[in-house]
Amino acid sequence: xxxxxxxxxxxxxxxxxxxxxxxxxxxxxxxxxxxxxxxxxxxxxxxxxxxxxxxxxxxxxxxxxxxxxxxxxxxxxxxxxxxxxxxxxxxxxxxxxxxxxxxxxxxxxxxxxxxxxxxxxxxxxxxxxxxxxxxxxxxxxxxxxxxxxxxxxxxxxxxxxxxxxxxxxxxxxxxxxxxxxxxxxxxxxxxxxxxxxxxxxxxxxxxxxxxxxxxxxxxxxxxxxxxxxxxxxxxxxxxxxxxxxxxxxxxxxxxxxxxxxxxxxxxxxxxxxxxxxxxxxxxxxxxxxxxxxxxxxxxxxxxxxxxxxxxxxxxxxxxxxxxxxxxxxxxxxxxxxxxxxxxxxxxxxxxxxxxxxxxxxxxxxxxxxxxxxxxxxxxxxxxxxxxxxxxxxxxxxxxxxxxxxxxxxxxxxxxxxxxxxxxxxxxxxxxxxxxxxxxxxxxxxxxxxxxxxxxxxxxxxxxxx
Length: 465
Prior knowledge:
Elements: H1 2-20, H2 24-28, H3 32-74, H4 76-83, H5 86-123, H6 125-130, H7 134-186, H8 192-204, H9 206-233, E1 256-265, E2 268-278, E3 283-287, H10 294-299, E4 309-314, E5 317-318, H11 324-330, E6 331-334, E7 343-344, H12 345-349, H13 358-367, H14 371-375, E8 383-384, H15 393-405, E9 411-415, H16 423-436, E10 441-445, H17 450-453, E11 458-461
Parallel strand pairs: 3-10, 3-11, 6-9, 9-10
Antiparallel strand pairs: 1-2, 1-4, 4-5, 7-8
């Protein structure tokens, strides 16, 4: 039991590490509920099979071997008759296995589809209500549930078939043993007591055989679960490849150089041969209409993806030669969409700075203008709801910016990070950043409030949508 539980913990830890290393592009093509079904349900299926195989399977196998030995000792000929149909059972299971595994995969996929629908409903509940989309969403959930019901029923019916065939063959075998044994008793080759004992031991084997058949069905579910987990663990096709032997991050003030960049965003070319020197401490505005590829460009500085051609240098080092830890310690990135966990303000702040002190946390809250907001609710101990839903959109964005400010960096990337904050507050925050991060290179993308985010030293224009 402890071994299977430890195995489950290790498996989920490995899955979590894999998902945490995926790129935003990979995540954009996944469904939250479906991933949860794999990380939770499919991983649990592996643990359940390991537990059953170790205890139920080994115990049933020992009982079966012992029972067969007793039957051979009582009467080898009758034992051979009882086992005569075993090849037919094995052949049936071999033929039935592909369909059993296919139905198991369909059932698990249907569960994942329903989980995805439910997760979408919970994540978008206010927007669904605002758009009066309750009926449409409920209808989609109902269809997903109906699909799951159908998949489960088909798997259950097929399971009954795969259990009925061995039961029929077993009954035929016992009947043959009864007839042959009766004739042997009549001919005086066997006593009636010996025949009764043989039939009793043969009946005792029904339990172990049924347990092993159940284990065979669990093996089919395991195969489906492992296949779904393999899809999560498989190497990301288009994601960045981090070096096995990274170069050390050179010392420097945060100078950037773009060399011949070819950038593709959503199948559309947005930059070709882009070359630009960004001196340390520059406040650079990345400009362009919505959909022009600003987020794609800014993501390159943390290697959310790599350019199709060209390279980016940080203080003379190619970003592709650096370790993930060194690069993302040097380049802080704050996206437009905030991420917060259910917990205290302090727990949210220290996600990327575990050693931060209360004084440091109080300082960054002051920089983004949130000190007074949390003071009346316990300050750093104030509790936040899941994804920070107890805060406004602008407050969530400001708290995420405060988190980024806790860790020293050479480059700060703000990708519409204050899009839900009013111009006056943005201007005060930018002034605070100038004081807190003197000399830090700042790359900023924004729609509106450009004056509040400035002043800027330079502007980089990204192509039209």
